Amino acid sequence: MAASYQLQTLTRALDVLELLERTSEPLSLTEVVAAMGEATTIVYRILQTLEARGYVYRRPGDKRYSYTGRSTGAGSISRAVDLLRAAADYLPESASTEQLSRQAGLDPRIALEILAPLADKGLLEQNAGNEQWRLSPSVMQLARHFLNNDDVLVSIRPLMERLHAETGETVSLFHRAGDRQIVTSVLPSPHPVRYALETGSAFPLYLGAAGKAALAFLPEAEAEALIRGHRMRALTPYQPKVSVLRKELKTIRQQGFAISNGERVEGASAVAAPIRGGNGYPAAVVGLMMPSFRTSDDQLRQLGVRLQEELGALFPA
Asked: In this structure, are residues 256 and 273 in contact, taking their beta carbons and an 8 Å threshold?
């Protein structure tokens, strides 16, 4: 749109809001003025308006401004998910509005506006005093397909049980959700020293054998979009460069399985292979995880070949 058609005051207000949204620490009026390059009176009036509408919060003590997190549409949905995840992190305990809002990065007043309808829909529960929140068992309804009726899980369960009995190691099933892998079924190792991911835990596709086993077999355009769009967060010391990741995925496609050592958890090794449908698309991933001292690269490769062969026979392309 041509600049002459823009509302300059609205444009300045949005610029101020975006500045506060991307700044981790609250800003003073002087700091906002300096960043915006606008007159103090104009910036002050914009901040007053945004504060009155609930988009900006001014701390009483030092009068510094911060973004409350209020938004509409997709932004509200995103923040509702953040609050649900925060509530899940506190299980089996409950948490206060302040605790949940702090973990989700929201102003408590905005968090409360989102928490209330989530409770009305049965996804959250409140205690008698309405001061504490807890994730409701109703969220299990959202996962019932994977828990009870997933065709892949029904078909793969006997193989998972056989691998678990023969290797004595943790065997897991993973499903992809966007740019992450979700653990949907686990048979933990019976050994005193073991590694086992909890059902429902998630991690990026670029991290670990199971994630890369799925990423490697996605259609090229889809995989490349995920590679270019992924954000390397400091989850573990393992932070691969994009060029290294592409090379690794090429090797995984050639051999049919992925191996990892210490990528998600130091001292843990894993091998994983995809369950591929008739179109070659990875429907799910089966993986084995164990302490690194109890295996070797040769043993992991042997397990990878076995996984690839057994899955290929069970789910022929």
From this structure: yes
